[in-house]
């Protein structure tokens, strides 16, 4: 995620923004968490603790206000209720990205001669993690950061992503080949993912089956040449569906010219695999595509 070159330039105009109070932040946390679950992304929960005296005349509230000006417009800064604390919710951000921002913010404060900070960061991924639990865990992380002398401490909430079903469709006219691919996919073990695999001998069979109608993430592995409705036609049909973003498409082909590849990518395929291919390479690509669903 990119803040842009002037992310720390306080001369940049911002829409009026305020520090979230303790009565607001729980509601905002739940809204952002719901989007985390729906979009299969992470949210970084950050708790910042101030140390020492405020040497440049800034108060604790003013430093929190400085933080508000420094974060992205999509982030939310909140009052953590206890003196010497300030919190930050960073949707669509992981712990490493949050830590990088915190180190830059800490450097800015040191340059201004203001104060030192410690911070605890945890990733919110599971719908069962509440704001109160996150705050308690982060306060424990602040203690660890102070004890270790580190600017940032990472906290494990003990709740990973919830297990989610991912549909997989294999389309190929050769029954033995598609069965081999189905067995290969069924043997894969991907954290927090349960695979539901079906095979089809033709694109029309898939489109008329009703198998594409649910909200589940859907990996479609299709040959470009099929008897009734070929792979590119299926690809176009999937990309024209209202919820087309749920589909991840891996196209298999014997054509390896640059023109064919460019056309396939421009038509909406996510990956392109030239036959014949090594089965281990195929499995590696499928695992990569599945991992990409959770960014």
From TrEMBL:
PROSITE patterns: RESPONSE_REGULATORY. Keywords: DNA-binding, Phosphoprotein, Transcription, Transcription regulation. It holds the Pfam family Response_reg. Residues 167-290 form the Response regulatory domain. PANTHER family: DNA-BINDING DUAL TRANSCRIPTIONAL REGULATOR OMPR, REGULATOR OF RPOS. This is CheY-like chemotaxis protein.
């Amino acid at each position: 995620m990119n803040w842009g070159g002037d992310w720390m330039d306080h001369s940049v105009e911002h829409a009026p923004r305020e520090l979230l109070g303790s009565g607001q932040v729980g509601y905002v946390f739940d809204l952002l968490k719901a989007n985390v679950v729906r979009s299969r992304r992470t949210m970084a929960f950050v708790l910042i603790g101030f140390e020492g005296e405020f040497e440049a005349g800034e108060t604790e509230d003013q430093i929190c206000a400085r933080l508000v000006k420094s974060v992205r417009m999509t982030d939310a800064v909140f009052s953590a209720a206890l003196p010497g604390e300030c919190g930050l919710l960073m949707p669509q951000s992981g712990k490493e990205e949050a830590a990088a921002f915190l180190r830059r913010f800490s450097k800015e404060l040191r340059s201004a001669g203001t104060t030192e900070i410690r911070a605890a960061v945890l990733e919110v991924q599971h719908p069962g993690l509440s704001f109160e639990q996150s705050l308690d865990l982060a306060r424990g992380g602040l203690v660890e950061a102070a004890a270790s002398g580190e600017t940032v401490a990472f906290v494990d909430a003990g709740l990973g992503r919830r297990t989610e079903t991912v549909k997989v469709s294999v389309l190929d006219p050769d029954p033995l080949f598609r069965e081999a691919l189905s067995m290969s996919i069924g043997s894969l073990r991907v954290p927090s993912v349960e695979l539901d695999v079906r095979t089809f001998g033709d694109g029309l069979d898939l489109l008329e089956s009703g198998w594409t109608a649910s909200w589940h993430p859907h990996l479609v592995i299709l040959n470009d040449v099929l008897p009734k409705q070929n792979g590119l036609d299926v690809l176009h049909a999937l990309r024209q569906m209202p919820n087309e973003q749920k589909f991840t498409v891996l196209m298999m082909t014997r054509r390896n010219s640059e023109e064919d590849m460019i056309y396939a990518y421009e038509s909406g395929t996510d990956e392109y695999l030239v036959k014949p291919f090594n089965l281990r390479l195929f499995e590696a690509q499928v695992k990569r595509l599945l991992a990409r669903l959770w960014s």
